[in-house]
Amino acid sequence: MDQPTPPDAYDSPWKEILESYFPEFMAFFFPEIHADIDWSRGWESLDQELQQVVRDAESGRRLADKLFKVYRLDGQEQWVLIHVEIQGERDEGFARRMFTYNYRVFDRYERPVVSLAVLGDDALGWRPSEFGYALWGCEVGIRFPVIKLADYNAKWGELETSPSPFAIVVMAHLKTRATRRNPEDRLRWKTQLVRGLYERGYQRRDVLELMRFIDWLMALPEELALQFREEHKRFEEELRMRYVTTFERFSKQEGLEEGLRQGVQVGEASILKRLLLRRFQQLPSWVEQRLAQAGREQLEGWADRVFDAQRLEDVFA
C-alpha cells in the first residue's frame, strides 16, 4: 500500500497519559525520586499555572510540558514542584528553555523546582542535560536528569515483561516512530500492543486508557483504521466468550449447572461473586449484601455487566 501514515500527533496523547499516570511515570523513569515522594498526600497538576509562567517563552518541538506539585517523605510542610518536559525532536534551544522554565517557576512559587526531561527523538547522540553561563566570577546554570526513549529499543524484552503502563507507552512511542513510512507494519504493531494490554492483566480502566493512548498515537490511514477496528471488535468478542465459558466452567465445578438453569439464586450469587473477585480482586461488604438480597433477574443483569464494567460500582449501577 502506497498510502502513508497520517501525521503523527504525540503531544496530546503524552499530556493525557502523564495526567492519568503521573506516579507510574515517576516510578518507571525516575524511581529514586518516586521513592522520596509521599504519594499518600496526593499530587496536583498545575497546567494553567505553568502556561501563565512560560506563555511567552520560545516553544520548540516539544511533546508535552507538565508541572506537578508533590510532597516529600521527610514530613516537613514543604512541597516540591516537578517540571516534566517531553521533547519530540532535536532542538538546540532545549536546555536553555529548561533553565528558563525552572527559574520562572521558582520565581513565581519560591519553592524548589526539579526539572526532568524525556527525549523522544531518534538522535542517540543528542542528550542535553545542562545549561549555564559564567562571567566575572558569577555562575548561573542548571543540570537536569534526562531519559532517552530511543535507548529502550535495546531493552525491548524488559518492556515486554514490565507491569508498568509506561512500558506500553514507550513501546507505542517507539513503534510509532519506527513505522512512519510503513502503515501495514504500524497496523501489525498496533494490534499486537493493544492485545497485549489484556494479557498483562490490567484493570478495565487501565486497558481503556492505554488503548486510547495507542490508538491516538499510532494513527492509520482510514482503510487500515477500519480494518483495525473490525479486528479488535472480533478479538473482544472472543474474550467475551472466554468469560462466558469461564462462567459455565465455574457452574460445573461447583455442581451448580442444574441449579443455575433452574434459577437457584444462591448458586447464581455464588458464581457472580467469584467472577467479581476474579475481575476486581477485592469486594467491599456492601457487595455481599447486594448479592444476598438480589433476585434472579437482578443477578443476571449484573452478570452481563461484569465483562464491560470499568469499575466495580459500574456493575451495580
Quick description:
The chain is an alpha/beta fold. It is built from 15 helices and 7 strands.
Task: Describe what you observe in this structure.
The protein has helices at about 10-20, 20-30, 30-35, 45-55, 95-110, 155-160, 165-180, 185-200, 205-215, 220-255, 255-260, 265-280, 285-295, 295-305, 310-315; strands spanning about 45, 60-70, 80-85, 115-120, 130-135, 140-145, 145-150. Helix 1 packs antiparallel against helix 9, helix 7 packs parallel to helix 9 (about 205-215) and helix 8 (about 185-200) packs antiparallel against helix 9 (about 205-215). Strand 2 (about 60-70) and strand 3 (about 80-85) form a beta hairpin. Helices cover about 55% and strands about 15% of the residues. The protein has a five-stranded mixed beta sheet. The longest helix is centred in the C-terminal third of the chain and has 32 residues, at about 220-255. The chain contains 15 helices and seven strands. The chain has about 325 residues and is of the alpha/beta class. It has two domains: about 10-220, no CATH class; about 230-315, no CATH class. It is globular and about 85 Å long. The model is unreliable at about 255-265 (pLDDT under 50).
